[in-house]
From TrEMBL:
Region entry Disordered, spans: 130-209
Family: Belongs to the bacterial ribosomal protein bL17 family.
Keywords linked to the UniProt accession: Ribonucleoprotein, Ribosomal protein
Subunit architecture: Part of the 50S ribosomal subunit. Contacts protein L32.
UniProt-recorded name of the protein: Large ribosomal subunit protein bL17
Entry-linked InterPro entries: Ribosomal_bL17, Ribosomal_bL17_CS, Ribosomal_bL17_sf
Domain of life: Bacteria
Encoding gene, per UniProt annotation: rplQ
SUPFAM superfamilies given in the database record: Prokaryotic ribosomal protein L17
Presence of the UniProt keyword Ribosomal protein in the record: yes
Cross-referenced NCBIfam families: L17
Magnesium listed as a keyword: no
Gene3D superfamilies, alphabetized: Ribosomal protein L17 (3.90.1030.10)
Biased composition (Basic and acidic residues): 143-153
Length: 235
């Protein structure tokens, strides 16, 4: 029978010892802390910290190595998604052992092994604190943003109306594009002032053309000095 690497063997055989430590590690990651004997806690601590180190890596190979010892998939998920991220900025020392005194009956020394809290001065903790600090000013900023939005809503219709009046005064039977770029109701002919051409819905360039002015009829577009797209090319 092989000799244990450190301390006395737990259980009756190496396989039994491996199973005991696996169950202890599963309970530790599931509950965050467990109460056990000092001998078991000292053997469990390096195993648990090694698994947390693998969880910090987060790759598939590390996950497979951990699942050789921990068969509960839900515990493995918690280890890699929560515990690993909690200690992402901690270089080591993820667990601690607290002495509790002797156990009644056999007088075995009992301890509590638990996961330590994340470092308060870790970069992620500082970022979180920085995000929480301005939270007190959020209501004031929110109110200011709402006031600004209301002001923009009041000014926007006036600006749109001014553009509409300018376009209608320039071209009879025309309308300016709406705020979202869609066609005004009753106007489906696109006019482009740069090329002075207009496009009807059956034009092959209709969808690619950005309307700078909309017309309700072809006659209105022609009267405004626009030429139907494609007529010059056909001639």
């Amino acid at each position: 029978m092989p000799t244990p690497t450190k301390g006395s063997r737990l259980g009756g055989s190496p396989a039994h010892e491996k199973l005991i430590l696996s169950n202890l590690a599963t309970s530790l990651f599931e509950h965050g802390s467990i109460t056990t004997t000092s001998a078991k806690a000292k053997r469990l601590q390096p195993l648990a910290e090694s698994m947390i180190t693998k969880a910090k890596r987060g790759d598939l190979n590390s996950r497979r190595q951990v699942m050789k010892r921990i068969r509960d998939k839900s515990v493995v998920h918690v280890l890699f998604t929560e515990i690993g991220e909690r200690f992402a900025d901690r270089p080591g020392g993820y667990t601690r052992i607290i002495k509790l005194g002797p156990r009644k009956g056999d007088n075995a020394p009992m301890v509590k092994i638990e996961l330590v809290e994340a470092l308060a001065d870790a970069p992620k903790a500082k970022k979180a604190a920085a995000k929480k600090a301005p939270a007190k000013q959020a209501p004031a900023k929110k109110a200011a943003a709402e006031d600004e939005a209301k002001t923009e809503d009041v000014e926007a219709p006036a600006a749109d109306a001014e553009v509409q009046d300018t376009v209608e005064a320039k071209y009879e039977g025309s309308a300016a594009p709406t705020a979202d770029g869609s066609a005004p109701e009753g106007f489906d002919i696109k006019g482009n002032e740069n090329s002075m051409k207009f496009h009807t819905p059956d034009s092959p360039w209709y969808d690619q053309t950005e309307a700078e002015v909309w017309f309700n009829t072809e006659d209105a577009a022609t009267a405004a000095g626009f030429t139907k797209a494609g007529e010059t090319e056909d001639k």
